[in-house]
Structures are given as C-alpha cells and as structure tokens.
Design brief:
Helix content is 46%, strand content 12%. It is of the alpha+beta class and 413 residues long. The protein has a single domain, classed as Cytochrome P450 (Cytochrome p450, Orthogonal Bundle). Helix 6 runs antiparallel to helix 8 and helix 10 packs across helix 12. It is globular. The structure holds protoporphyrin IX containing FE.
C-alpha cells in the first residue's frame, strides 16, 4: 500500500504539521514549485490566500492602506473569532493613522542606540546561561533551560518588573501564544479559556499601570502607562494591549529563534565548526538562524480593494496569509533554501521580522540577544550533540522548539 502523501496546502491550518519542521519545509518547497500564492479552503476556517512568494509578501506589507491588519490580523478558526467576548487591541490589530500614533510612543525606545544600553544586561544573562550549563554538568534541555528563560528575563528588565514575576509571566505568555498546543494549554482550547488567559493579563497589567502612573521610572512600562495619544491619556484597552504585545511578542519569538538556531547548528556540525573557528561570523549566523526559524509563522491582511497579487486576482474583503516561514524558503531569493548556511550572503533579506509600518519593533533587541548568547556560548563549547528527540510546538502562529535535549562538554573558563 502506498503511504498517503499529506497535502502541502494543510501546512497553514493544521497545527500538527508544525510538529515536524523538516516536513513542513519540504511541503513549503513543493508549494513554491506550484506558485507564489495559494487559495486555502479548509473546514472551520474562512477561506484565505496563502502568500509564500517573498516579493509579494513585501509588496503587501508595503501597501498598508490596500492591505490592512483589521479586522483579523491572525489566523484563527471562525468559531474562535465568533466566540471572542473580550477585545484585545495591540499594535498588530491597528491600521493607520492610529497605528502610527501608538507606535511612536515607544518607537525611539526600541531604536538601536537605545537598546544598546541593554547590552550589559544581555552579557550578564549570557554569562549566567553558560554558568547554568556548567552547573547542569553536561546534559540539559536547551529549549527549556536556556532559551526559554533568557528573553523573558530581558522582558522583565525592559518593563522594569521584579524577577519574582518571572513564573507568572512565563505561564501567561506561553498560554497566549501556545494556545493550540495541547501541552501548553491551560485547559482544552475554547473561547472561554482564551478569555480567561487574557483576563489574567489584564488584571496584572491594570495594577502595574496604576503603580507607574503614581510613580514613573525610566522603564518601558512607565512610558506605556503614561502614554499620551492626541494629547489625552491612552485608553485602558490600548494601554493593556501595549503591555501584552511587548511581553508576548518579545518572548516565545526570541526563545524559538535561539533553540531553533542551536538545533540547526547541531544538525549541521560543519557550520558549528565554522562558527567556532570564526567567531566574527556570529552576526551573519544569527541572521541565518532568524531566516531558518521564522518563529512568527504568519500575519494576516485584508484587501480593501480588488487588486492583483503575484498574478492572482484578489477581491475586496479577501483574507491573505503572509507566510514569513515559506517566504524565507523562496528559491528565487535564497539559493539552496533548505541549507542552513551561516555564511549565506543575503541571510538578512529574510522577512522573519515582517516589513513596512508594522516591522517588528523589537528586531534589533532580538538580534542583540541572539548575538550575545551565541557569542558567549560558542567559544566555550568543546563538544555538543543531540541527547534525545527534539520536539516542536504544534501551533500555527508563534512557535519553535518545545524541547531540545543536548549533551555537551565545555572548555575551562
Ligand atoms: C526573533 C524574534 C522576533 C521575531 C521573529 C519577531 C517577529 C515579528 C513580526 C513578524 C512582527 C509583525 C511585522 C509585520 O506585520 O510586518 C512583529 C511585530 C512586533 N514585534 Fe516582534 N519579533 C521578535 C522579537 C520581538 C521582541 C524582542 C520584541 C520586543 C520586546 C518585539 C516586539 C514587537 C512589537 C511591539 C511588534 C508590533 C509592531 C507593529 O505592529 O507596529 N518583537 N514581530
């Protein structure tokens, strides 16, 4: 009996398909051979166009008035959209002109010159990560023990939150993004459960806003709590949405890039050897890790007019899925796209951080986190190998490794 080949068109809607990233990549490549845009009609979902062509993803993002984030910027099943009772409004749910007004509140804070101030803390966290590896004595789960805590510690730092809040933030950020993965769910997924998670977030950040309004500091939370839009205090819903986007967008994304990057090095020992021999390659290696992992799998846009995308007629109201992951494997842009190559000359043309007015605010911070962590870690690694099965989160939105067991030896400090 011939085994049935799974339909590559399912890779966008079927969360199980995200459990095996090699297979996902193969399916994406098969779709590239068929074309740059695909109509996806699956039970439970409103039909949408999956855009995988690199140039088209950028074109759509560039034309932000023609292709808007509203009304739904993330792919959800129709039942989840219809059952939602609690509104959540963040930068990624907004369009111009309001998006620009809200983004300007923190735009400068995230500029390279400002986030560079955090480098000392990133170095400290990187040294702590290496010390942890020493303590573990040769075996650990890189995804859980190293990659997960690092960016969350950075979020606590930028928001000015105490380290005691680590566990609570961890649970909430994972549940919000990992909500379709059975291991990360608080309960079986339902609109009520999602509302409960979002409700917890609201309670926590409402208290924080009150504190920072009473006693502002120089952290990002103070900037958000005291933010003015059109000369008036930012409304509560948007204030809370701002915290949520910073806390969630900066966590699983960056940790997924870290563990996915490490896994790629383990699977390509010649690349690891190259990086060890030439540490100055770390910046380009990080760009390639970001291309390779594309932890934010997609965002959605809605067409405001009839138009054409990648040769395909699109009607006003059509929903488009921007597949950052598949666009990063576009063979027209990336030669030999399934090869992880830390010297890839155009690795930085990846679209993992999006493009245009919504371009990731935390891109420079995320890059610095990876550069510092790998910059400290690689020179200390004498040997490293996989020590068990690596597993991935089965989620359709933001994801990466759930587990990455490693065995290693370190050189003396
Ligand atoms: C490797 C790590 C990261 C990846 C892959 C990533 C990816 C993305 C993507 C794809 C978008 C949407 C872009 C678009 O629609 O064009 C985005 C938006 C955003 N990201 Fe990131 N991100 C990462 C890390 C971070 C970090 C560390 C922070 C902050 C601490 C952050 C904060 C944000 C915010 C606030 C937005 C909304 C921007 C807007 O809509 O104007 N991200 N990110």
């Amino acid at each position: 009996m011939p085994t049935e080949v799974p339909d590559p068109h399912d890779i966008f809607t079927d969360n199980q398909r995200w459990g095996d990233l090699d297979e996902w990549n193969q399916a994406a490549l098969a779709l590239h051979e068929q074309g740059g845009i695909h109509l996806i009609e699956r039970e439970g979902f409103k039909p949408f166009w999956a855009v995988i062509d690199h140039a088209s993803v950028m074109d759509i993002e560039r034309q932000h008035e023609l292709f808007t984030n509203e009304p739904e910027s993330v792919l959800l099943e129709t039942a989840a959209i219809d059952g939602r009772t609690l509104e959540i409004k963040t930068l990624v749910h907004m369009d111009e002109p309001s998006h620009g007004k809200y983004r300007r509140l923190t735009n400068d804070w995230f500029k390279p010159a400002n986030v560079r101030r955090l480098n000392d803390r990133l170095d400290e966290l990187s040294r702590e990560a290496v010390a942890k590896l020493e303590e573990f004595g040769g075996e650990c789960d890189f995804a859980v023990d190293i990659a997960l805590p690092f960016p969350l510690q950075v979020i606590l730092k930028i928001l000015g939150l105490p380290e005691e809040d680590y566990d609570r933030m961890l649970m909430l950020t994972q549940q919000l993004f990992g909500a379709t993965d059975p291991d990360l769910q608080r309960d079986e997924i339902s609109p009520e459960v999602m509302n409960q998670v979002i409700g917890d977030f609201f309670a926590y950040f409402t208290a924080l806003t009150a504190e920072r309004r009473a006693e502002p500091g120089d952290d990002l939370a103070s900037l958000i709590a005291n933010g003015q839009i059109d000369d008036a205090a930012m409304p509560d819903l948007e204030t809370l949405g701002y915290y949520i986007i910073v806390a969630t967008a900066g966590h699983d994304t960056t940790s997924s890039a870290m563990s996915g990057g490490m896994h790629a090095l383990l699977e390509n020992p010649e690349q690891l050897a190259k990086l060890r021999a030439s540490p100055e390659l770390v910046n380009n290696a990080v760009e390639e890790m970001i291309r390779w992992t594309a932890p934010v799998r997609h965002f959605m846009r809605t067409a405001q007019q009839d138009t054409v995308v990648c040769g395909q007629e699109i009607r006003k109201g059509d929903w488009l899925y921007l597949s950052y992951k598949a666009a990063n494997l576009d063979p027209k842009v990336f030669e030999n796209p399934l090869q992880f190559d830390i010297e890839r000359p155009n690795a930085d043309r990846n679209v993992s951080f999006g493009f245009g007015v919504h371009y990731c605010l935390g891109a420079q911070l995320a890059r610095n986190e990876l550069r510092r962590l790998f910059g400290h870690l690689i020179p200390r690694l004498e040997s490293i190998e996989l020590a068990g099965e690596a597993t991935s989160m089965k989620t359709t939105f933001v994801g990466g490794h759930k587990s990455l067991p490693i065995r290693y030896t370190l050189t003396p400090a």
